[in-house]
Amino acid sequence: xxxxxxxxxxxxxxxxxxxxxxxxxxxxxxxxxxxxxxxxxxxxxxxxxxxxxxxxxxxxxxxxxxxxxxxxxxxxxxxxxxxxxxxxxxxxxxxxxxxxxxxxxxxxxxxxxxxxxxxxxxxxxxxxxxxxxxxxxxxxxxxxxxxxxxxxxxxxxxxxxxxxxxxxxxxxxxxxxxxxxxxxxxxxxxxxxxxxxxxxxxxxxxxxxxxxxxxxxxxxxxxxxxxxxxxxxxxxxxxxxxxxxxxxxxxxxxxxxxxxxxxxxxxxxxxxxxxxxxxxxxxxxxxxxxxxxxxxxxxxxxxxxxxxxxxxxxxxxxxxxxxxxxxxxxxxxxxxxxxxxxxxxxxxxxxxxxxxxxxxxxxxxxxxxxxxxxxxxxxxxxxxxxxxxxxxxxxxxxxxxxxxxxxxxxxxxxxxxxxxxxxxxxxxxxxxxxxxxxxxxxxxxxxxxxxxxxxxxxxxxxxxxxxxxxxxxxxxxxxxxxxxxxxxxxxxxxxxxxxxxxxxxxxxxxxxxxxxxxxxxxxxxxxxxxxxxxxxxxxxxxxxxxxxxx
Length: 550
Hints:
5-stranded mixed sheet, 5-stranded antiparallel sheet, Rhopdopsin 7-helix transmembrane proteins, alpha+beta
């Protein structure tokens, strides 16, 4: 092959690759991943062809040497693009990730930079004149060239493998397209393998001739085999195979097309429906399935022997490129089982909510019972301690006042001894009810233990607390407790303490009220005394708790 023929071959190859790249780029909207990958495959081949054309045409050794180094970006672009082309063919829904694109650009950029800087390191091509950019016909392969070749052919092998796999898995209608792509891609690489085996400069590089073959085959595949149509064809097959009923209706309400599921639905609606309903009235054949175009969604029911089928219908408008109405697409999905399941789930949910509410009520009842004294029904000591801590903290935060009162039943041991423990229990119950009747709103009333009762009076100071406590004492003293054949009158002795005058902690307030109550016992009972912090030590010294009977 002489130089003039090579120049023609290189020029034709570059022109074919450029034209295919232009066509595919303009049609990329039909299948963006496939078209973009094929465009860059052709651009890489075009670059390679132009660089070799300059190499062969130039009589200047330096220009030829530079052209030889400038061939490397061509395969650097071509090989990763071809691998992406294989992915796009094998997986029509595949879209390359950004990180994958950047990763595939690393090696082409590195080898291109290495080629342009080769005179300084001779890693790509070496030999006589390589450092001086002369005598390119005498150069040999460097280690970077060999590694780049191995990398490029690895990508090509992956791409060819994906194309071959897609041929094996594709329906017969698509196999001709895959064969065209496989043969078109294989041609230049077989030629290039032969070139590599002979070494650089031993013979002209006819690889671009292979790209001319590739471009010609791709041109045929695009315009004769409708290469870009494999995705729409696939979608058409899917529409005919899906279980949803799909129907296209003209603006005049006539059926333009429908899939197999729509035929089956029509026969379930009307067994006498025509075998070929295309052209018939959509509303007349499908009835309520044809929802108003302004609603775009609805439901209809088909009565069948032994039951009914429920369908969810969605519609969407079809327009052409000039936004002119072409009709409507109706999709009916059988939701019988889904609706039945939804109804069962709703019923189960309702039952579960009722059970949860019952459990919450039982839990609340248990919590309430746990906080109550079983005899008197008042709050017990545990509830009092928990609640009083929160009440005291709130009072401290607000800068308010809080009074507490502790009552003890006078001579309660005598009641038990003279009348029995049942009578003693009846006395405690009656006194608890009278304390509740007389206690102000918001007061916390609890049984402290044994015959002791406790009151917390939020917002009350020492004076107010003393007045309330004395009123409660008087109310209980004026009332007799009916025991059937007899009545019992019991009195209370009480002690009052106030926050912050008598103490700032729960223990201090309880202690102060307790000491004040014992002072009331010492004073003759049936009285209420106010805690005096100055007298605490004296009270502790002069009044022993065990010395005063209750």
